[in-house]
C-alpha cells in the first residue's frame, strides 16, 4: 500500500457512526487549517444528480482552450483517488501527484486531531488546501452529495452556481421526491452569483427558481434564458448575447448537448472574455471517462465478438438509464446493430427502473456483480428483474464472462455492447482493460 492509500484508509476510520449532513465538521477543520477556502480562485460550483462531471469537463476544456489555468474537484474517482484533484498550475493542468496529496492529507489529519469527520469532508479540506496554495485562474467545484449541507458548500461567494439535471437518487439523505432533492441541490445558490438552472422537469424547475430568488441569486434558466438545438450536424446555442453556431460535442449522447449548454451559459455570464474559438475547441476536446466511453482496444474489448462495439457508462439511476437508452436508440438509428446490455448495480439503486428503459431496445441483459461491493445486486436477481420486464437475460460472475456469453449468441450483425449500472463497475472494467484516467 503506497502512502496516499495508507492515509486514506486511516481517514475512513474517523467516519461518524451516523451521517448527519452538516457543514460544522468541515468548517471546524478549515478553521484549524487557516481557512484555505477563503483563498481559492474564482469558483464555479456545480450540483445536480446527473451531468455534473460532464458539465465540468466542458467548462475545463473551454477555459483551458482560452489559455486559463483551471483547478478541478470531482468525485468519486474511478481508478485512484488522485483523479478527484486536478491542479491547474500549468497549461492543461495535472492530477495531483502522490507526494503533494500525501502532504495535504497528513496536514488535515493532524489538524483534525482524531475527531469524527466524514471521508469526503476531510478530503475536501485537503483539496482546498492544495487549491489555495497553487495559483490558478478558476476552480471548478463539484458537490459530492446534495448541495445545501455538502462539504463543498462552505464556499461563500462563488462566481456562479450550476444545477444540472435532477432525478431520484440518494433518497436516504436527500428526500424521497424530486422536489425535496431539488431543494437540497439549490443550497449552492448564493446572493449575487448567477444561478444557472439546467434543463429540468417542471416541478424541479419551480423549486430551483424559487430557491434561487430566495437566495438573491440572478436566474438564468435553460429553455427560457438560453436555448440550444441540433441543426445540420451542428449545435446551435442562443441567449440574449446572440447565437453561436458550434460543432457537436465530442462526448456522445444528446444529453451531453444539454450539459454543454449549461457550461456555455456559465462562461457567457462570468467569463465573457472566453473567445468563441475556445468554446468550439472545448466542445471537441472535452473528455470524461466512463460516460458513454467507447473502448477501442484492450483485454475487455478482445473478449467481445469480432466487429462488436463496446461502450462503457457509469449511469446508475433511472434517469441515467433513460438517457443511456435514448443514446443507444440514436446510435441504432444512425448505424443499426443489436444491443446487448451488461449490467451490475448496487442494491441502493433501483435497477429495475434503469432496466425498464431498455425494453424493446436490448436483445439481452447479462447481469454481473459489482466487484468489491457488498451492496451489489446478485446477478441472478438482476437477470430475473430483466426477464420480468420482458428482456431475455442471463447471469455471469464478471464482465469478462458476460462478454464470453454474448460472444456465443447468434446476432444478425456484430452487436453493440453497453456496460452500465454503476461507476464502481465501470472502474473495474477500466482496470481490467488496462485503461488510464489522466
Automatic annotation (TrEMBL):
Q: Which InterPro entries match?
A: Folylpolyglutamate_synth, Folylpolyglutamate_synth_CS, Mur-like_cat_sf, Mur_ligase_C_dom_sf, Mur_ligase_cen
Mur ligase central domain location is: 46-266
User: What enzyme class is recorded for this protein?
Assistant: ligase
Q: Does the keyword Nucleotide-binding apply?
A: yes
Q: Which domain of life is it from?
A: Bacteria
- The enzyme's E.C. designation: 6.3.2.-
TM helices/strands, residue ranges:
none
Report the Pfam families cross-referenced here.
Answer: Mur_ligase_M
Q: Which family does it belong to?
A: Belongs to the folylpolyglutamate synthase family.
Descriptive protein name:
Folylpolyglutamate synthase/dihydrofolate synthase family protein
The record lists the organism as Methylocystis borbori
